[in-house]
Amino acid sequence: MSDSKIRRRSGGSNVTIVISISLVLVMLGILSVLILKAKMVADYVKENINITVFLDENSKDVDVLALQKSIDAEPYRRSTVYVSREEAAKKLTEDLGEDFIKTLGYNPLQPSIEIYLNADYANNDSIAWIEQQLREDSRIRDVMYQKDMIAAMNERMGSISLIIIIFSGALLVVAVGLIFNTIRLSIYAQRFLIRTMNLVGATQSFIRRPFVWKGIRNGIIGALIAIVITVGIVLLLDRYFHDLKLIQVADVETLGILCALQILLGILITWLSTALAVRKFLRQSTDALYSQ
Predict the structure, then answer these.
(1) Residue 1's pLDDT band (boundaries 50, 70, 90)?
(2) What is the 3-state secondary structure (H, E, C) of the chain?
(3) Contact yes or no for 247/185 (Cβ under 8 A)
(4) pLDDT recorded at residue 2
(5) What pLDDT score does 13 carry?
(6) Residues 6+ positions from 147 with CB-CB distance below 8 Å
(7) Domain ranges of the chain
(8) Mean predicted lDDT score pLDDT of the chain
(9) For residue 245, pLDDT beyond 70
(10) Does 50-145 carry CATH code 3.30.70.3040?
């Protein structure tokens, strides 16, 4: 085979490898953005879970303020809102569509403090501990929250997270396998060159080096192409589906980390695949090389 044909075949295989790496890294990049978006939605839902602390109807403003400040100092608190008896009555009147105070002749509602939690504390175990701590305060008459809803929400989010992790892992394994086979096929055409270098006394590290460097170069090029495509897709989706707020999710810092990970994965996958493929042909016998 002439040198020009070898160069053309090598160039074609390099293009195939770069395209394969780019497509894989684009899929992983978009999946990462969607995972970040899912996490943001989950955190948003969790941070809108609230615990309602009911106070004595004769509580003084100074006592309520002191209690609210003590709750604000806790690590589980994201925000607190004090709801007076009058505000609670107004809200209930709006919900019912009629003035229940005129019917009853008095306002039976108690003042309360609504505690909105940080996402890390929005689970059954943490909330049970928070409830126990709050009930120990003599200024608090009762503590209420939607226990069943919180349990169901955490169970579903846990299942969704597990499915995403399994899917991501499976995609990564399949992608690495496809890239490895593509690189192995490109090196297969040069298996006799590898064997010749081995026979004339070249060390395995010396033989692997040019192939590995070429693989790393292809990985970097594929990663750079993937970065451009991934950022373009994110910008396009944000333009036409602005309500998704992908730019808020994939901000500059997060996109920078994602791009760095794509480059790192591109280098790591091609380095390992190339090194393993060359090692395979180095260890094969001459008869095995001809029989393939």
Answers:
(1) very low
(2) CCHHHHHHHHHHHHHHHHHHHHHHHHHHHHHHHHHHHHHHHHHHHHHCCEEEEEECCCCCHHHHHHHHHHHHCCCCEEEEEEECHHHHHHHHHHHHCCCHHHHHCCCCCCCEEEEEECHHHCCHHHHHHHHHHHHCCCCEEEEECCHHHHHHHHHHHHHHHHHHHHHHHHHHHHHHHHHHHHHHHHHHCCHHHHHHHHHCCCCHHHHHHHHHHHHHHHHHHHHHHHHHHHHHHHHHHHHHCHHHCHHHHCCHHHHHHHHHHHHHHHHHHHHHHHHHHHHHHHHCCHHHHHHC
(3) no
(4) 44
(5) 67
(6) 124, 127
(7) 3-44+153-291, 50-145
(8) 78
(9) no
(10) yes
Q: How confident is the model at residue 85 (pLDDT cuts 50, 70, 90)?
A: confident
Asked if pLDDT for residue 6 goes beyond 50, the answer is no
Q: What is the pLDDT of residues 55-72, one digit of tens each?
A: 877 777 788 888 888 888
Q: pTM (2 decimals)? A: 0.61
Residue 15: count of CB within 10 angstroms of its CB: 12
Tokens of 174: 């399949």
